[in-house]
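I would love for you to help me understand the pair of lines that follows before we discuss the fold together.
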Amino acid sequence: MPITATMTLSSRLRHLTIALLPLALATACLSGSPTVPPATALAAAAAGTATALALLNVTPATPEAVLSTPSAPPADTPAPTATAAAVEPSATPSPLPLQASATPAGPATPDPNEAVGDIVFQDALDGSGRWFWNYADDVAVFGIDAERAQLKGVMLQAGAGWRFTSSDDTQSFSAQQVRVTTHTTACAENDEYGLMFWGQPAADAASPSPYDMYLFALRCGGAARFELIQGTQVTVLTDWTPAPAIHTGAPADNTLMVWMAGGEFRFYVNDQYLFSAQDTTLTGGFYGLYLNDRTAGGETVFFEDLIARAVNR
């Protein structure tokens, strides 16, 4: 049975903890004043939310490679014939037609900067902007690391996931290109982390989870996945896909980027295209960051430079 506790610290600070079985969920929110460039004209304060979340783990089949067979080289041209009286030139052979190699053409790589315009949201995630997170319990600890001056999340237990989100009044625009840079210092092969976006209050008012969101997740073994989270229900839109562009293990730096417009999503890591997907369930909202330790606890990830640009399409 869910247990809910609410405590008001000020008119802009609230703390909400929700515990449930079998899916653990916890939320912590803390708001601050936004730092927005004048050109972006963004409004609304923001807060930090931490939500515990356990998700499914599915491994997709690896697609077969397509090989091409090289064409055979043309036969040797006969040498000219010589006589004792004189050397008679040989007839000039007709040129053989060139044979094209049988290399199949791959799909065109979608342009990550198509119709991309001005910055509409930006946060260095260093404590100077919208994300003021300080939270600790027996599952996770997160906050601004004193040495790196960046947002740091540490999972203390295995088999648990956390999503850290800004408040639901941060952003409402939809068509955008959003990116965030990550740095792992401890991350086992099956541990996960990622970027959440288009967060909004749950459509099901009775849901024990307060938000619906999309999730672009990386696995430290080198795979990526796209999910729709509606309350406690998870829909896999693109299952785990191996990607050489992902820097594996720890320490490792990866920049996650999503281009989105009109129900189309394009996913990139380190500016290299991974896959695309279509979905129209959600149409805009706020951001979040995600950790899920599936090993033995200790997963540690830093997040920095969350930047969103408008897609004018």
Observations:
- The chain has no helices and 20 strands.
- The CA atoms of residues 180 and 306 lie 4 Å apart.
- The chain has one domain: 3-57+113-311.
